[in-house]
Amino acid sequence: MKKMLVISALACLGVSAFAADGATIFKKCAVCHGAKADKVYLNKVPALKTLSFEERAQALKEYKAGTRNKFGQGAIMKIQLNSLSEADLEAVDKYIETLK
């Protein structure tokens, strides 16, 4: 019983050690969207921090799936988001929320 408890505890620690870090992931996004998510990209893509959490979450999911091409950025966004998990996307969205 104690062995299972220890293994379970270590598994939880391992999961949290590899949990998504929104700030680290966002560094790649900051090139186009600005360090504070306040840059209007190409004078047409709104600053990310002006969007609601829900709007950003939906856009991220759609861009990752390749079903969104708003402002003609669908292809590049799909490439940028391709390697990110749902947890990563949520972590980035939560991080942007802290920049307000």
UniProtKB/TrEMBL annotation:
Claim: Heme is one of the keywords in the record: yes
Gene Ontology molecular-function annotations: electron transfer activity; heme binding; metal ion binding
PROSITE patterns per the UniProt record, alphabetical: CYTC
Transmembrane segments annotated in the record for this chain: none
Domain Cytochrome c positions: 17-100
Cleaved signal peptide residues: 1-19
Name this polypeptide is given: Cytochrome C
Upper lineage: Bacteria, Pseudomonadati, Campylobacterota, Epsilonproteobacteria, Campylobacterales
